[in-house]
Amino acid sequence: MRPARARRHIAVLPCDGAGKEVVPEAVKVMKAAGADYDFQEYDVNADQYMRTGEPIPAQIWSDLEKADSILFGAVGDPRVNDAAYLAGVLLRLRFELDLYVNLRPAKLYDDRLSPLRKEERRKIDLLILRENTEGLYVGMGGRFKKGTEEEVAIQEDVNTYLGVTRIIDYAFKVAEREVVMVDKSNAMTYAGALWQERWKEVARRYPHIKTRHLYVDAAAMQLVRDPTQFEVIVTGNLFGDILSDLTAELIGGMGIAPSGNVNPETKRGLFEPVHGTAPDIAGKGLVNPIGAILSASMMVRHLGQQEMASAIEGAVESALRAGECTRDLGGSLSTSEVGDAVAKRLRD
User: Fold this and answer.
1) Chain segment 284-314, per-residue pLDDT in tens
2) What pLDDT is attached to residue 117?
3) Which domains does the chain have, with CATH numbers?
C-alpha cells in the first residue's frame, strides 16, 4: 500500500498594499476548486521591514526555501524609500531560488477588454518568456562623483552563456509552433552577439519549431499591429519586463495579468500578479483580483493539477464575460465580490 502523499506546502506572501487584498481571493478560489494545500502566510511586508530592518527574516527564508511553491502579492510601500527593501524581497527570491524563467502569458478572455479595433486582431494567446536572473536587474554598477555636475552613473547588463542558453532552450520546449527571439543586438553588440550565437545553436536542436528574430522596437510595433501572430517570445530581463506590460494592456490591463517565476529543474516556483501595490486604491475594495487568481491557476498547473488549473481559468473567463468584475473592467463588484463570483462558479 502506497503511503499517502504529503500535502503541498504553499507559502503565502501578500506583502503590501494591493497584495493584501488580492492574495486572499486567489486562496479562496483555489480552495473552491478543491486544492488540498497547506497554506501558510508569512509576515513579509513593509511594516515588518520598518520594525526589524530585514526584508525577509532568516527563519522565514528557511521556510520559503522548503515550500512547494510561493503565492506572492506585491511589494512596495510609500513609507519605505529604500531600494534595498524591494531587492531584499522579490529580487532575492528570484535570484537566490534561481527562478530563471519568468512566464508572462497574455490571453484575451473577452473581446470588449481589448483596445484593438479589428476583430481578427483580438484572438490573443501568447507567452512572453523573460530571462529572470540576469540583465540590468542584477544591480551591478555604481555612481562616481555622486551629487556633482560631473557625476557618472554606470549600470551593468549581465548576460551569461548558461543564463541565455537555458531560457532560449526552455522557450523551444514549451512552444508548439514558433519561437520569436527579441533583442537589440544591432546596438547592444556584446550582449547581443551572445544572444544571437546561443539562439542559433539552440534552434538547431528543434528543427520542427519555426524561428524568427526581431529587434525589440520592431517587436513592440508588431505586438500592437497584430499580436495574434505570436505564440512564444523569448527575451532578456529588461525587454521582457517592458513587452509583457504592453501585452497586458492588450488583454484588458495590468489588473488581469498573471505571471510565474519558475525553475524547471528544481520545480521551485513563485507566482504573482503583474500589477504593483497600487497605494492610491489599496484598501478600498477596488483592486482587481483576477491577475492574482490567474497566477494561482498557473501555480496549480505548475504543481501538476492540470484539470484544476483549467477549471479556475474557465471560471475567470465566465465571470469576465458575464461582466462580474471590478470597475477597471467596466463592472461594479468589489475585490472580494469578484473572488466570490469566480469561486461560486467552481462550486456550482
Assistant:
1) 999 999 999 999 999 999 999 999 999 999 9
2) 85
3) 1-99+260-348 (3.40.718.10), 115-139+154-250 (3.40.50)
Angle between helices 306-321 and 290-302 (to 10 degrees): 160
**201 membership: H or E segment, kind and range:** helix 189-203
User: Counting beta carbons within 10 angstroms of the beta carbon of residue 35, is it exposed (0 to 12), middle (13 to 18) or buried (19 or more)?
Assistant: buried
For residue 190, indicate whether it is catalytic: no
Phi, psi for 67 (deg, rounded to 5): -65, 150
Q: What is the value of pTM for the model shown?
A: 0.94
Residue 245 bears catalytic tag: yes
Q: How many Cβ atoms are within 10 Å of 261's Cβ, its own excluded?
A: 24
Question: What Rg do the C-alpha atoms of the chain give, in angstroms?
Answer: 20
**CB–CB of 310/261 below 8 Å?**
no
Give the C-alpha separation, 104 to 242, whole Å: 11
For the chain, list residues with pLDDT below 70: 1-5
The partner residues of 105 in beta bridges, in order of sequence, read 127
Q: What is the spatial distance between Cα 77 and Cα 16, in angstroms, rounded to a whole number?
A: 7
85, 100, 110, 184: which is the annotated catalytic residue?
184
Closest among 338, 247, 234 to 287, alpha carbons compared: 338
Please give the pLDDT value at position 348: 82
Known catalytic residue at 137: yes
* Nearest-angstrom CA–CA distance, 44 and 33: 27
The reply to whether 184 belongs to the active site is yes
Cα–Cα distances in angstroms (integers) from residue 36 to residues 85, 216, 243, 281, 292, in the given order: 33, 42, 35, 32, 18
pLDDT in the model for residue 6? 73
Joined together, the cell numbers standing for residue 97 give 531560488
CA angle, 136 then 295 then 314, to 5°: 145
- Among the listed residues 42, 100, 109, 137, the single catalytic one is 137
| Count of residues in the chain | 348
| Phi and psi torsions of 272, nearest 5° | -150, 150
Catalytic residue among 68, 77, 241, 340: 241
* Beta-strand relationship, 210-215 and 178-183: parallel
Catalytic residue among 217, 267, 280, 284: 217
Residues forming beta bridges with residue 11, ordered by sequence position: 40, 70
